[in-house]
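User: My notes are a mess, but here's the protein and zinc ion's SMILES. Can you give me a structure?
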Amino acid sequence: MASYRGHLAFASGLGFIYGGIGASALQMPPALALLGAGVVTIGGLLPDLDSDSGVPVRELFGLMSAVVPLIMMPRLINLHLSHEEVILWLALIYAGIRYGLSRLFKRFTVHRGMFHSIPAMLIAGLAMFLVYDAPVLSQRAFIAVGTMIGFFSHLVLDEAYSVDFRGLTIKLNKYAGSAVKFFSPSLIANVSTYGILGLLIYLAWRDLFAH
Ligand SMILES: [Zn+2]
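Assistant: No problem, the inputs look usable. Here's the predicted complex:
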């Protein structure tokens, strides 16, 4: 599989192109186009949240716990909370990702298991869609799609590198498989992945149509 740096370089290149298309052809505001470039880059790192060790995964959760509260700001502001309540929520989300979510990932995911898959890509995109609130739907979609493009670039790169330069297949956990997959051999992983995906689809649907 490609290295952290490889993913970062590839996804940031794609992000640059995506931001450029956003600013020109899609006529997104410049700041949003830049944000789009940023989420493609972060999306390209996301699948490796499932690795259990190493500095990159710790760094990644650190990055996520800082970035997600920032991206949630418009949503929190729309809730008309007091300044103190906003600060408390930001702190709570930070700690939840940094300590809660990272434990869950460590405990329940297998490196290159179901978090390296097409449904996981959709989960990342939908989660971003729910987290990021913008007055215009196309702007929300721009950010969500950017996340998925970055995520997908990671899967493709991992797939391409699952055979190393000597032509040997890299040894992976038995539950790992192709990176660009819809299912894994683990029934529990499949059920929980599609369960989360279904829940997010429902929440996005409710967010769009139910009020
Ligand atoms: Zn990977």
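Residues 4-209 form one domain.
User: Great, I'll file this with my notes.
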